[in-house]
Amino acid sequence: MTDSTLPAPALLDWVRKELRTPVSVTAHPSPTREDSRVWALRRPDGVRFCLKVSSRPLSYERETFALRHAVPALGSGHAPQLRASSAEHLALLLTAVPGRPLGRLKLTPAEEVRAHWQGGALLARLHAAGDLSGPRRAEAARSLRAAADEAEEYLQQAAGRLTPAERRLVRELTERLRCLPPLPLAFVHGAARPRNLLWSPASAQACWIGFERARFATVVHDFVPMSCGIWAERPELAAACFRGYGRELVPEEHYALRGLAALDAVRCLVRGPAHHDAATTARGRRTLDQLTAGAFGELHALARSR
């Protein structure tokens, strides 16, 4: 009988060939995306690795590129290192990294602040690592317009989940993304949220994982998930992240953040109900309520000014 929790035999053969030794395999829930599969591997000498099978070719291509060209800038222990990749299997063989996702840990407030500070410092390294020459700069510069284009599609899908006034607000905020002056560009993580930010209490060290959405875009893209998530209730964590990052957002980036948050809200109101995900739905509703009240981002802006 085949154990469906284990990698396919051909994939295991590839792993053994790359590591040149048998390995023990343990399946565990992916801390990145629910539709990618992740296994913990251990060699006989105790050295650990991670096997990740991407959900689709684009995710595999993005993460492979990130791990080869930008992620090494984060430094040893602050991100996985790519040991091998297989386009045939959409598989990545990665070094194991210490820590657990922030959302799965019970930390002291001081530890949480430290984790977000380090997370911001690591994002600064990542943003500085990408080569923005040629078509990559053009790709990054188009990212806000692409977000504006995407908003209308989600507004149609959201249908009765938004009031007419909310739909007008989302359109207004996302259309502004087309009119902003050039903003700082970078190679962004693309999913910089607590489930992808690991923290090791033993070493007091942060680590980013989950680079399947990494791409060239505006810097502000990387601050949307936290702003629409945990920072909405914990502004001191936003302040810590920006201190680690080394700068605050400029006013034009704040305008972009509001537009991208509006897109994130309507996206959550589509995807949450579709996947029976109450937390995602609640996040979208909370962000939209804050935008309607004109208070989005005000709390962590205030915290940074103290």
UniProtKB/TrEMBL annotation:
Q: Name one Pfam family in it.
A: APH
List residues of the Aminoglycoside phosphotransferase domain: 35-252
InterPro entries listed in its UniProt record: Aminoglycoside_PTrfase, Kinase-like_dom_sf
Q: Where are the transmembrane segments?
A: none
Any idea what this protein is called? Answer: Aminoglycoside phosphotransferase family protein
At the highest ranks, the source species' classification is: Bacteria, Bacillati, Actinomycetota, Actinomycetes, Kitasatosporales
